[in-house]
Backbone:
């Protein structure tokens, strides 16, 4: 459905209409969900099936593509959380396409090296210990103890 947002007096201020897409999500009913109130005071239900209403200004894409973009949005959010929190890349060094690519590749390589060396998924503490070791603030024994705790 294509709609115009705003009240009757303000609809002319908006340059273009938007599209509302209704998506039905059939959840996994074998896994019961807990009903709880989040910190934003939104109501959560225990039902696994739900309907989403997405609003977009992209008229050139099909509803299925819009739904996939929304679905993968959460994976992208998780990636950037990992990139910022675990790997310590709190801001980009460069804003150019090549600069961002280099920083992301370096983060991937560092993550894989940590995984190969420790045998575990990298976490914030492991990253901190490696930084302390390379800065001279932690000894090799302290780093080895940390890695051994991960393996146990």
Residues:
């Amino acid at each position: 459905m294509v709609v115009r947002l705003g009240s009757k007096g303000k609809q002319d201020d908006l340059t273009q209409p938007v599209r509302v897409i209704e998506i039905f999500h059939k959840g996994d009913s074998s896994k019961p969900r807990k009903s709880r109130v989040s910190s934003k005071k939104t109501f959560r239900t225990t039902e696994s099936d739900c309907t989403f209403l997405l609003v977009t200004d992209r008229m050139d894409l099909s509803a299925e593509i819009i739904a996939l973009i929304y679905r993968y949005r959460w994976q992208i959010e998780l990636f950037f959380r990992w990139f910022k929190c675990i790997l310590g890349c709190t801001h980009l060094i460069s804003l150019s396409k090549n600069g961002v690519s280099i920083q992301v590749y370096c983060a991937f390589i560092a993550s894989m090296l940590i995984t190969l060396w420790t045998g575990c998924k990298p976490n914030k503490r492991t990253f901190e210990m490696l930084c302390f070791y390379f800065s001279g603030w932690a000894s090799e024994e302290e780093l080895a103890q940390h890695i051994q705790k991960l393996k146990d």
